[in-house]
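Homework help board

Subject: predicted structure for assignment chain

Our instructor gave us this sequence and asked us to write out the predicted structure in token form, then describe one feature. I got the tokens but I'm not sure how to describe them. Can anyone check?
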Amino acid sequence: MKLNKSLLTCAIAVALSSSFVAHANIDDKNQSTSVLASQVSTTAVGNVLTIEQTSLQGMGNDVMVTQQGDGLEANVTSLGDNNSINVDQKQIQNLSLTYVIGDNNTLSHSQDGEVNGALSDITGDDNSVNVAQFGTGFFGINNEAINVVQGDANDIAVTQQDGGHWFYNLDLQGNSNKISASQAGLLNEATLATISGDENTIEVTQNGLFNAFTLTELVGNTNEVVIAQEGNFNGVTVASVRGDENSLDIEQAGDSNTATFASVEGNENTLSIDQEGNTNTFTSELFAGNDNQVSVDQQQDNNQVGADVLGDNNELTVMQNGSMNETYLGTIGADNEFSSVQIGNENSAHIANFNGQGNDVDLAQAGDMNTALIQSSYPDTSLTSNDNDINISQLGSTNEATLTFASVLNSNNNSVDFSQSGDLNAIDLVMEGSNHSIDISQQGDMNMVAGIDTGAFIVGGDNINFTVTQVGNGNLVEGAITASNTSVVITQVGDYNTATVTQE
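My token output:
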């Protein structure tokens, strides 16, 4: 089944901030295109040292520069008091440009190798920047770090080894922010553009080849973003996180894994992604509201997860262990809790648009090529669906379950429990009305619950209990229930039994 990810992506347009630089070009990533890189290659033609200090209050500033080699340049400008700047450059064609306005700032650049570049432009007080770059350049471009800090008490540390790294951190405003980046390997890239707010903590660790991280415009307070990438060709792109106390944690191990989510808005949101394997994909194009939690764990290769969340107190959890599994979770409303576990290969689950409160869905698939599609009031978001409890478990191969709540009437207080074990079991159910209780268990091969002809089994009315148990092969239950206060129990044991239910 091809997942239909259209719940919120079609209903709500999400405006994304423009990136400072393009996403890492892993096809032709042999140089940085920043102004600093041009200065490194053209300006530094000999030893150049320029220091200009102004002590406004007579407390004095401390500058220490050590240069060894050819083509080195240090240009230091300090305005304020009690600032400490330490630049240490060795080898050839290194460049360090530092401008400070404010008091009690500490900057330390240490570059060892060739074609290094470091720029720190700080406005504010009590900021600390530490940049250490070591290694030899790759394709003529070595390590590069740019920091532009505005505000007070920010702590930024960048460590880059080997060659071909570049790190951008631009226009950081706010207080007590902490950014730490460590890159080892070749041609890793980390880009942090506009960050505004207080007490934000961002940690980036990249180890391998052609890894890239891009975060554009983090706004809010007490945000924490932790990214760790190990392997090759991994990429994480985050755009426009707004709100308070958001926590984003991404860890990728393997090759060619991607995590892309944009426009996280609201308070106390938590997003955690763990990808281990190759070519795993997570995409979240909307994450809005308060107290939302999204957790994704992908193991092995070619797994896909997409999530859109709008509302309060939603919790979505996905675990994929296998290859080529697909899961899409989308929700509107409050107090929803979704859980999806897929073990095996080519499993697919689509859970979308529980438009209401207090919904609880638990889905587990084991085996290969299981498919489950659960939709409530979809695609009509004007309907309400409240207090539903759905549990679907499929074990075996080629099982399929489809549940759709009413497209005309409100569906409240429904309880559904599906369990399929064996091969080629299928359930297709459409529910209308309120207060349903449905329990279906199928074991064996080719069991099916369906409507008359090619339609779905429709359950409508109030206070209906519907129970089906099938054991054996080729059993079939078909029909429709649209009456109120009705209890139906069907048990079939053996092979090729057929039960037709029609109640109006």
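Reply (TA_rk): Your tokens look well-formed. For the description, you could write something like this. The helical segments are 35-42. That's the kind of observation they're looking for.
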